[in-house]
Design brief:
Length: about 350
């Protein structure tokens, strides 16, 4: 961890918006006066606050996606593993009742766990010591083999991108993102695989937000080894009041972050285009392995969530001297609509 520590994001009821390099000790969003001039009970703010931790990890053979997501009216835990060599897709997930998850208010020194009969995820957030560790397991079913794994991201030499993005006068979202090297192991149906730190990646996404009643975002992330360098990207279009000034877009090269401009997503069937206004970012994502979830809870809410895996190709021009070229890099993307 390169930088110091920022103590809180809410001061005297006001969320501090901006881009920060220092990790935040206490994401105290429940202290925010989300409707300035009006009293808002803490229980109501808690219901409106969406929280999750998500991770992507892997190498040229595997892509792993894990998340604990708490939307308060609903929640879910998920482990997805894609074997790139065999094109086998393993999805272990559990829809949960409200209150089943307790997402911590920071990742400097905390844990985030779900223990169920058919799925277990344990997150050890030790960012103050430069690492995050995730353990997961699920027993075999009629459709799926047993799985067990442990992955560790090393953030000692990785730049952090901490954003606080406004959606309204004093409502918005926080995210802490980083892309770094990874070590660990994976066991599928008693077959063991190990991850070499020089050839593997780990993507961190710690997230909280006071989203609008109709919550939307587009997102793509990927990481790959080019030469001996680990390159990772994160691109998002959300409900920011100013997508150019406040966004979650960046590229990491061996842990060094370069901030990117705002982007927009356009879709033509299974082909998604991601560009910025000046087209210094010009990428095409091709959906190959869809994952769609549609839920309608009537007056309690609804969700239309697309999370395909596929490949992304194109270029990102960082400056006149540096252009990153992506050639069919395995990746994951999302189109999210949530009403709650």
């Amino acid at each position: 961890m390169k930088s110091g520590i920022k103590e809180q994001l809410v001061i005297d009821g006001q969320i501090e918006f901006g881009l920060f390099s220092s990790p935040v000790r206490d994401i105290n969003f429940l202290d925010a006066k989300i409707f300035p001039g009006k009293y808002t009970p803490r229980w109501f703010k808690n219901i409106r606050l969406k929280e999750f931790q998500a991770f992507q990890a892997g190498n040229e053979d595997f892509f792993i996606f894990l998340t604990l997501f708490n939307a308060k009216v609903s929640a879910f835990a998920q482990v997805r593993i894609f074997d790139i060599r065999t094109k086998k897709h393993y999805i272990y997930e559990k829809q949960l009742l409200p209150g089943a998850l307790k997402i911590p208010n920071g990742i400097l020194n905390s844990t985030n766990n779900y223990d169920g009969k058919n799925l277990s995820i344990h997150i050890e957030n030790q960012f103050q010591d430069g690492f995050v560790k995730v353990k997961f397991s699920a027993p075999a079913t009629k459709e799926l083999p047993s799985v067990e794994g442990e992955i560790i991201g090393n953030f000692e030499a990785c730049d952090s991108m901490i954003v606080s993005i406004p959606f309204a006068e004093n409502r918005g979202m926080y995210a802490h993102k980083g892309i770094t090297s990874m070590k660990g192991h994976l066991t599928i149906a008693n077959e063991d695989y190990s991850f070499d730190e020089k050839e593997s990646f780990f993507i961190l996404d710690d997230h909280k937000g006071y989203y609008p009643y109709r919550m939307e975002w587009d997102w793509l992330t990927a990481a790959f080894i080019q030469g001996e360098k680990l390159i990772g990207i994160n691109l998002t279009r959300n409900q920011s009041l100013d997508n150019e000034k406040y966004n979650e877009n960046g590229v990491w090269i061996d842990g060094k972050l370069t901030k990117l401009p705002g982007v927009h997503f356009t879709r033509d069937g299974d082909t998604w285009s991601i560009k910025d206004q000046k087209e210094t970012i010009d990428l095409v994502f091709t959906c190959q392995y869809p994952k769609n979830v549609r839920i309608n809870l009537g007056p309690l809410g609804a969700s239309d969530y697309q999370s395909p895996m596929g490949v992304v190709s194109g270029t990102i021009q960082l400056n006149q001297e540096t252009t990153i070229k992506l050639e069919s890099v395995f990746s994951i993307a999302e189109k999210q609509y949530l009403r709650c």
